[in-house]
Write a structure and sequence with these properties.
The chain has 262 residues and is α/β, with parallel strands linked by helices. The chain has 7 helices and 11 strands. The chain folds into 2 domains: 186 residues, P-loop containing nucleotide triphosphate hydrolases (Rossmann fold); 70 residues, no CATH class. It is globular.
Length: 262
């Protein structure tokens, strides 16, 4: 992934974007020929911006995230990022034979952090995600929400400027998900990370994001975008969140009807 730079006011180099997606398309071979999944998508994520990608199942949200992560290559167009992104999945993907702390240390090791510094940094990251004292706990000793916190700490250990999140809270119960929404918002604001967050949950998208991007049903195209200027802290049940969610849901339903999906 390339990095685009510009001169900041103090003369240092500053990235002009965290991610830039320019006219990106993706297709796969199929029995009836090429299957178009994403069609001519252009989207920028600014430094420090929180963007959610929303759309019906199968519209290509996860495909686009994988392309930004560098796990796959676009069939057309270009993607540039400010350094290598960190990626967090719906499944925590923690190594069960390692403790919470050692899972984080592995990410630090791969980043080249000296052995003597890893434990202290892992403990700092666990404290950041409100898991102080959990360094020695095995994965089976952690609840679902705690596992996702460790996964978040491991992603943060990569010290990327862009965090890619693929429905990381979808498998959690409503209360745990609500708590982790608060935690993610706090961490995003403290670290000034850029976040590109995939979800199919409209209220989750509105609660978290500064901008919501709706993809059409397959092939995925940018159908519409909304700037979310609701002040923080936000709650999932807030009137402003609910009202914008209704508007976006109507647009989503229209996209689904237009493409004959149920």
């Amino acid at each position: 992934m390339a990095t685009t730079l510009a001169k900041a006011a103090d003369g240092t180099e500053a990235a002009t974007h965290a991610a830039r997606i320019e006219h990106v398309s993706k297709w796969y071979p199929g029995p009836a020929g090429q299957q178009l999944v994403l069609d001519d998508i252009s989207l920028d994520v600014a430094p420090g911006e929180f963007v959610t990608l929303l759309g019906a199942s199968g519209c290509g949200k996860s495909t686009l995230l994988n392309l930004v992560a560098g796990l796959d290559r676009p069939s057309g167009g270009t993607i540039t990022t400010d350094g290598r992104p960190a990626l967090m999945f719906q499944e925590h993907a923690l190594f069960p034979w390692l403790t919470a702390g050692k899972n984080i240390e592995l990410a630090l090791k791969l980043r080249g952090v000296a052995k003597g510094e890893r434990r202290g940094r892992a403990e700092e990251l666990l404290e950041l995600v409100r898991l102080k004292g959990a360094y020695g706990k095995r994965v089976h000793e952690l609840s679902g929400g705690m596992r996702q916190r460790v996964a978040m700490a491991r992603a943060l250990a990569q010290e990327s400027k862009l965090l890619l999140m693929d429905e990381p809270f979808a498998a959690l119960d409503a209360i745990t998900r609500d708590v982790l929404h608060d935690e993610l918002t706090r961490i995003w604001r403290e670290t000034q990370l850029s976040v590109l967050f995939v979800t199919h949950n409209v209220r989750e998208a509105v609660r978290l994001a500064q901008r919501v991007v709706l993809l059409s049903s397959r092939p995925g195209r940018v159908a519409r975008q909304w700037t979310v200027d609701i002040p923080h802290p936000r709650r999932i049940e807030d009137t402003a969140v609910a009202e914008l969610s209704v508007e976006i849901t109507e647009q989503l339903r229209g996209e689904i009807r237009r493409h004959g999906q149920h």
